[in-house]
From TrEMBL:
It comes from Mytilus galloprovincialis (Mediterranean mussel). This is DEP domain-containing protein 5. InterPro entries: IML1, IML1_double_psi_beta_barrel, IML1_N. GO terms for cellular component: GATOR1 complex; lysosomal membrane. GO terms for molecular function: GTPase activator activity. It comes from the Eukaryota. Residues 5-92 form the IML1 N-terminal double psi beta-barrel domain. GO terms for biological process: cellular response to amino acid starvation; negative regulation of TORC1 signaling; positive regulation of autophagy. Residues 103-232 form the Vacuolar membrane-associated protein Iml1 N-terminal domain.
Amino acid sequence: MENEKIKKLHVHKRNPQDAFLGNDILINPKDFPDVVLRDILEIHHSDSDNSRLLLQVTTVTGEFQQKDTISIEHSIASSFHLKPYNNVVVKKVDPKAVALDLVELLFKDQYFSRSDFWRLRDSLSNTCAYLNMKLEAYDMRAQVYELWSKGERVTCGVINSDTRVVFRSSTSVVQIFIQMSSEMWDFDLYGDLYIEKAVDGFLTDLFAKWKEQNCLHDVTIVLFSRTFYEAQYI
């Protein structure tokens, strides 16, 4: 296509003490005269359509002067199977064409109020997101867990004003109520007690899933029942 460019891929390691090396992507402005700040670039190898990476341009200062070359942060390039020192196709894309419908953010060991959620959501508007991306704003930290667009899971995209942002905590306070009724000692069609299905089925599967997702919830299990009294005793 007309706006596609073939460039050689380099990688760099993020350096928190160096603002320039803190960017996800570095480009030479002379190679991309039509690209301005906050534009979205699509990067992929010409022989692969599966690992298309979307990144937002956050610097065009000209400090990166290597000709016909772009540089992507090392961990991002590795996650999207982009091979250093190989040619990649770089294309400027319309943010509306790659907009996300839903973003799930995961956080832990932090308390967020409603105003915190709103501020973090507002800071993400018109930005690019990718899987496992680490976010930090207003002393709040989160990680991109899932991305959805047009009913399908995707690996990257653009968050706009219409994107739903869902916050999930891996360190929540969870209370599980189990009613110990007489039916819990009944057998199901396969000969299992319902109490066994609750303990060895539901709870076991739930804790295994939390362990797989590295969750550290504070769980309280409450066993409760009820008793019927005749009206004359009330």
